[in-house]
Amino acid sequence: MRSLSFRWLSNTILSVQNPASANRAIPFRGLGVGAAPPRMDKKREEQPSAREITVKFKPEVNQMQRILDTDSSGGWEKCWEQGLTPWDLGQPTPVLLHLHHTGALPKGNALVPGCGSGHDVVAIACPERYIVGLDISEKAIKKAEELSSSFPNANCFKFLRADFFSWHPPELFDLIFDYTFFCAIEPEMRSQWAVQIRDLLKPDGELITLIFPIDDHIGGPPYKVSVSDYEEVLCPLGFKAVSLADNEMAIKGRKGREMIGRWKRSSTQCSL
């Protein structure tokens, strides 16, 4: 079983285009932030078909996938050891930083699973919000600690090496931020992901997901995702999307294929 999580750089993907018309935009449903979204019907077409879209990955991604295919238990550690980390953005996620600066993030305890180098952890940590950065890779955790040790808010966060799926912290969280963790795990593990999210989050806590990559490529990681993929595993556990919107602050190369979802538990479960 893989415990995977990481950031996928915009330059990880060389091109996403319609072979018949390279300038045709990929269609998206846009929902205003804060708007109550309609239930996403799995039968509705959410992205182009596999025949319409071509996704080409850089050689580094193909090398990474080969490592993971040959070593499912220690593959991510090997990627870090070899410096093969095309997912590492090298800076905080822009929309997360925006939410922090505008006071739109919950206070209290927060978790960033698959924190990698820890940029998001450090960016949103403050006296009102204590952040735990979790990663399966010891090398990643050591790098995160080295990069962040001299920051003035260093007492507002910590990094832990642990398997997200078997980790049992002493306290529950007010906020969990997931960006590309969901798309990095094998699709058959998504139900386990949702159960662990539920078990780690306070009853009134919030899950924020950046839903990426919304396309129809084959294989992974990163594996293709859709809003319905999240609903399929979160709704039966009582979660409801309180807002869904295109991520207008997505980095170059991801705009039009990334959405932000904010989820909370509802007193009435949705049905798919």
UniProtKB/TrEMBL annotation:
Keyword flag S-adenosyl-L-methionine: yes
Domain of life: Eukaryota
Listed InterPro entries: SAM-dependent_MTases_sf (IPR029063), TPMT (IPR008854)
Keywords: Methyltransferase, Phosphoprotein, S-adenosyl-L-methionine, Transferase
Pfam family, one: TPMT
Entry annotated with the keyword Nucleotide-binding: no
Protein name, per record: Thiol methyltransferase 2
Taxonomic path: Eukaryota, Viridiplantae, Streptophyta, Embryophyta, Tracheophyta
